[in-house]
Design goal:
The protein is 28% helix and 11% strand. It has a domain of 68 residues. A 3-stranded parallel sheet has the order 2-1-3, with helices on one face. It is α/β, with parallel strands linked by helices and 101 residues long. The chain has 4 helices and 3 strands. It is elongated and about 50 Å long.
């Protein structure tokens, strides 16, 4: 992996521990392409500019991308879904919750 250009977040965003995915997977890495959002990482990866650690919900639907090292690397994150109390029983909200689980 160290031979491939790595795509990740700009250093200023790495104050957020959940975004330090590459530090977990490749300690001592050097990110060559930095973006401030996951869409930029996805776009750069899909354009063939390098490899990145994308969430499954971003990478799996894109037929131009393939998972590498799926058996060796697993990164888990927790997400909070917050909605106004009056919307929590709506079908679209329940569908979103079911999809995310």
């Amino acid at each position: 992996m160290h031979d491939h250009p790595l795509i990740g977040y700009v250093d200023s965003l790495l104050d957020v521990p959940a975004l330090r995915i590459l530090d977990e997977v490749l300690p001592g890495h050097r990110t060559r392409i930095q973006t401030n959002n996951i869409t930029g990482q996805w776009t750069a990866t899909a354009a063939g500019l390098g490899v990145s650690a994308l969430p499954l919900y971003v990478g799996d639907p894109d037929p131009t991308l393939v998972r590498i090292l799926p058996e060796e690397v697993t990164v888990l994150r927790k997400y909070w879904l917050i909605v106004p109390r009056e919307l929590q029983r709506r079908a679209r909200v329940r569908t979103t919750i079911a999809t995310l689980r």
